[in-house]
Structures are given as structure tokens and as C-alpha cells.
Design a protein that fits this description.
By secondary structure, the protein is an alpha/beta fold. It has 15 helices and ten strands. Belongs to the sulfotransferase 1 family.
Length: 345
């Protein structure tokens, strides 16, 4: 009888010991898995927060899900209060240029855990009706964020609208301004292509690019055509420089953002005074779409809308050459002002 009791006791101790060992092994494996699930911000590259009150970037990364719920309108007021979330005015704005890659730039910067983007173009400063609604209306259009995150919005019409520089200056004279540009003739054709596609969807006819870009009476470049006028970057920038010093602008190479985005994004990180967090892991080339897509983590990837990367219509080479010669002196002045040179014709 005593022998049976001792055998039963040994059996129970064996089972309990096995469970304890199994639990320890599970916890060890789980910790290893959690470390592997942090590809955007690897352990060896994490920096301690410079301010003890600042939310570490690692924390911001893991709370993206909450911000996503806020954008969908699913978060409660209690969650907003509990996490000290706020709607902040932007500390940086992508002011242009239309068809330069503003959407791609905004989405790529959103990879950074300290950046929160306004999903829609607000058109506050270029629209008199919106501007008349006041700065509080503008703030309410911003996404919820943690206090130490940077909110960024983009509205490409800002760059070419005369009233905008003064209006933004009145809001924040020290704001950082991002301008993404492409080779001017390519950008003008891309601009035309987007308008053409919209006309075709409505079964409307539209002039050929050559007829719009060149004045048939003088055979000179038609500067009244908006797509041409927008590509004269220096003319618009000079208006902005009446309010902001050149140091508050950063010029992004839109052509390079298409072919090799990481170096351009790293330059923007430095300009915004953010720690480097975007890596090659976050960007992968999609051969089907023909451009880079975004990888936030091992489960969430994102590609830009199918409307991006439209095929341009063929343009008469003589018109292309005429436009390139027209833009050349303006480009040279743009290089001189910004201190950045591009391999444009």
C-alpha cells in the first residue's frame, strides 16, 4: 500500500515538473518571437528617449493599431483621454508639387513611428471657404497623435497658390516645408495624363498635349497652360521665399523616390530632425506595379493606388525638346536657390 502511494506521488511530481518546464520553454520562445516581430525598430538601433516625458518610438510603433481605430472613428473618448492623444497642427507640410510624388512621399514618411499623416488633402490654405472656417476647423481635420509625434499633411495646390505662403506663415513661421519635384517636362506630361484620364472616364474629348503646351499662333511654349506654369518651379518658390528662409525648405527628388526611395527618405528624416527609423526592410519593389511598396511589419504591407504610375501618351519629340529648352534657365536658377542639382536636360 505504501509502495503504491509513493509511486503515485512520484507520478504527480513528474507531471507538475513537466508542466513547469514546458511553461518556461514557452515563455523563452515567446520573448524570442516578440523580438523578431519588431523589424521596423530593431533592438540594437533603439535610442533612449532624449526627454523622460517623451514617449519612446518603440511604444509609438506598437500603438499604431489604436491610431488606426481613431482614424476609422472606432476609438472611444476614454481611450483618447487614457492615452493622452491630441489633434495637432502640422509641424511639416508637403506643399507640392502636383504630380511630383506628393502622395508617395507622404505614405513613405508614415512608415516612421514618430510621424502621423493626414490621410486626405485638407486644402485649408488654398481654399478661401475652408480658410474662413478658422484654425480650429483645420486642427479638427488632423489625425489623433501622441504629443511628441509630428503631424504632416500634403496639399500640392499650396505651392502654386499666391495667398498660401502668407497664410501658413501666420499659423507657424518656423514650420518645415517639403517640396517634391520631378523633371519639369515629365511632370507636365504626367499632369496632362491625369486630366486626360478624368476626361475619358466621363466620355469627354480633350486636346492633345502638344496643342496645349505650344501656342499655335506663335509656336512658342504656352505659359498660360497650367501644366507648363506649374513646372516653372523657381517662379513659385520665389514667392515662398518672401516669407520663409531657404533653410526651412527641403527639396525631394521625385524621380529618385521612384527608383531608389530610401536615400531620399533618410534626407527627409534628417531635415525633420527625426531619428533614422525607415530602412530597406520597409520598402520592397513590386515588379507587377513597377514601383516600390511599403512594409510596416511582417503582417501589414501597402501599395499605392492603381492610379499611380499611369502610362504617359507619346509626345512629339520636337515638343519635348522645345519644353526642355524652355525650362532649362528656370531649372538653373532653381538649383542655385535650393543648393540641389538635378540631372535634368
Amino acid at each position: 500500500m505504501l509502495f503504491k502511494q509513493q509511486a503515485l506521488l512520484r507520478q504527480k511530481l513528474f507531471v507538475l515538473g513537466s508542466l513547469a518546464i514546458g511553461s518556461v520553454l514557452y515563455l523563452v520562445a515567446r520573448v524570442g518571437t516578440l523580438d523578431r516581430l519588431q523589424p521596423i525598430c530593431p533592438i540594437e538601433s533603439r535610442l533612449p528617449p532624449p526627454d523622460p516625458e517623451q514617449i519612446p518610438l518603440r511604444t509609438l510603433q506598437f500603438k499604431r493599431a489604436l491610431l488606426h481605430e481613431l482614424r476609422k472613428g472606432n476609438a472611444t473618448k476614454e481611450q483618447i483621454r487614457l492615452h493622452n492623444l491630441v489633434q495637432q497642427l502640422p509641424r511639416a507640410i508637403i506643399i507640392g508639387v502636383r504630380k511630383g510624388g506628393t502622395r508617395a512621399l507622404l505614405e513613405m514618411l508614415n512608415l516612421h513611428p514618430a510621424v502621423v499623416k493626414a490621410s486626405q488633402e485638407i486644402h485649408f490654405f488654398d481654399n478661401d471657404q475652408n480658410y474662413g472656417r478658422g484654425i480650429d476647423w483645420y486642427r479638427e481635420k488632423m489625425p489623433f497623435s501622441f504629443p511628441h509625434q509630428i503631424t504632416i499633411e500634403k496639399s500640392p495646390a499650396y505651392f502654386i497658390t499666391e495667398e498660401v505662403p502668407e497664410r501658413i506663415f501666420k499659423m507657424n513661421s518656423s514650420i518645415k516645408l517639403l517640396i517634391i519635384v520631378r523633371e519639369p517636362t515629365t511632370r507636365a506630361v504626367s499632369d496632362y495624363t491625369q486630366v486626360l484620364e478624368g476626361k475619358e472616364r466621363k466620355n469627354k474629348t480633350y486636346h492633345k498635349f502638344e496643342k496645349l503646351a505650344v501656342d499655335s499662333g506663335t509656336c512658342e511654349v504656352n505659359t498660360k497652360y497650367k501644366a507648363v506654369r506649374t513646372s516653372i518651379y523657381t517662379k513659385h518658390l520665389e514667392r515662398w521665399l518672401k516669407y520663409f528662409p531657404v533653410e526651412q525648405f527641403h527639396i525631394v527628388d521625385g524621380d529618385r523616390l521612384i527608383t531608389d526611395p530610401l536615400p531620399e527618405l533618410q534626407l527627409v528624416e534628417r531635415f525633420l530632425e527625426l531619428p533614422s527609423r525607415i530602412s530597406r526592410y520597409n520598402l520592397y519593389f513590386n515588379a507587377t506595379r513597377g514601383f516600390y511598396c511599403l512594409r510596416f511589419n511582417i503582417v501589414f504591407n501597402k501599395c499605392l493606388a492603381g492610379s499611380k504610375g499611369r502610362i504617359h501618351p507619346e509626345v512629339d519629340p520636337s515638343v519635348v525638346t522645345k519644353l526642355q529648352r524652355f525650362f532649362h534657365p528656370f531649372n538653373q536658377k532653381f538649383y542655385q536657390i535650393t543648393g540641389r542639382t538635378f540631372n535634368w536636360p
